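hi!! sorry for the late reply, been swamped w classes. u asked for the two structures so here they r. pasted raw, havent cleaned anything up. first the sequence of the first protein and right below it the tokens
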Amino acid sequence: MLLAESDEEAEQLAAFVQQQQGLGFTDVRLVDRQEALSLAPGLNDSVVAGSYSPSDGQADPAHTTQAFAAAAQRHGAVYWTETTALALLTQHERVTGAQTGRGEVEAAHVVLAAGAWSDELAATIGLHVPIRTRALQMILSTPARAGSLQPVLSAVSRMLSLKQLRDGAFLLGGGWAGEPTADRRSYTMRPESIQANWATACELLPIVGGQHIERAWCGLEAMSFDDIPFIGPISGLGGLTIATGFSGHGFAIAPAVGRSVADQIDGQPTPELDDLSPSRIASSHPGQVEDFIRRI
């Protein structure tokens, strides 16, 4: 549920709902303050309206990943954990596998989906992928009464994603930044980001303020130069599909991306990937791309 805290923001939401319905998301609807409160009791006095999608939801990234992995293993997939991918292997303008900490692995087709480190692997075959790393913050609270909040909350004027987990803890995000380390393997927290993220959640839903911060951390995200992921083959280079630069949205669309990439490799039509093609890298202005990568 995306919330408005002024009449002007409510007008923005009305236009947003109309746009979403026009794109086929017919369950998205505008709700007034009374219905917003029925969906999320305890909202602050400023909330006047919201857009709500009852078919939207949330999932636990770690549990979801484990479930997909287990399902793939039942169909014959093999996973190597704690194994570093060092380089891609090529032969006659075709990617043929990868060099790993456990030796070379040959493959009929390689999918490069190494998140914030995809550019490093791409560079081993002279391929430039314009992404940069951002450390995006998450905060976990101490558990409140379970079931206090059902929908995931955000607001037009706030950097906030707020949800409640099964054990009652609140999980806060919204794009607040930490600092990635120079080697892009870790991060440091920004105290001001923690304080501001927590404050905005408490302002929107005051019951959050009855809890304390249990812990805070950052995820290392690959941001593309235009905030749109690169998904698809590379022109002139066979045997390779890249899927990176998800710019903070990878988990939500991961099942659809996996299906589309598999279909594309299998030679089936995938019009949903047309505007995500890495070919747009070649048409971008080199100076703008480099400025993006160097930006802090």
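now the second protein. again sequence first, tokens right under
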Amino acid sequence: MNAGAVPPIALTMGEPAGIGGEITLKAWYSERAGAHPFFAIDDPARLAALARRLDLAVPIVEIDEPEAATEAFAAALPVLRCGLAADADPGRPDRDNVPAVIAAIDRAVALAREGRAAAVVTNPIHKATMYEGGFAHPGHTEYLGALAGGGAAAQMMLAVPGLRVVPVTVHIPLAEVASTLTSEMIVAAGQTTAKALQRDFAIAAPRLTVAALNPHAGEAGALGAEERAIINPAIQILRDSGIDISGPAPADTLFHTRARAEYDAALCMYHDQALIPLKTIEFDHGVNITLGLPFIRTSPDHGTALALAGTGEANPSSLIAALTMAGEMAARRRAHGGARGAD
């Protein structure tokens, strides 16, 4: 690769029994003429067999190093070998393949941190199978934060055209949200989001808004005390630090068309408060982005879809959106001052 050239994107295999392989093949077929080059970290034989099974005209070329992907990409899907322990049977995850799934993530992150991959894009994993295979993290986001080390505060953002949302609490029961939520969590999410919007999205002066936890933003305490006790103090800290931030706004007024024009990202207090409006606005093109890491990571905003695996019916739109966004973020990050700088 020439000095200063932008490296390709590393795409992990995800759950081999899910739709990750199919959408990888379809993404290359759809995007090979103009996309940022990417390579799959996967089993080449698995992908070749899957292409034959689904009658997809996608040639596979095995590469030894990521640098070879850029030249190979226009003619074939480049694959950096990551062998499986067991055959991948569509729709039937096998815990024996969990080490390979983890190895693909580890390799992608290592290459990104070395500057040999512009970004990491992850295909969906099947969490129940991962746990059976000894995976000790709640999901991708937490594992990537652990791989980053150095106290990295991995923060999830979901994005579609016209809306970015950041859930402050994520995969916890709704009954535990109020007791888990703290001002410190909101402040950390706001700071990480504002910095990422500047560096990775080229928004010089980000505008944030905060969703209330309770109906009507608590009605001055009549419908809940969290706005007064937790959310308002966090907003004031972020405002005092120079961040343009508004709220707390009742969540039922925050996501219509006019409201969305007033902010660049919304901090939401729990998972579904963030994801319901986003998936309602644009279900097929959502992108999951992990902020706060010293490398770029995006992912399609859907799961393994085991029931669709092997049918040829999987929609690659979200993966294509994730690859596109990763390439755009990589270009902006390099322009901002380096591909591997820490947050």
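hope this helps!! also noticed smth abt the second:
DSSP finds twelve helices and twelve strands in the chain.
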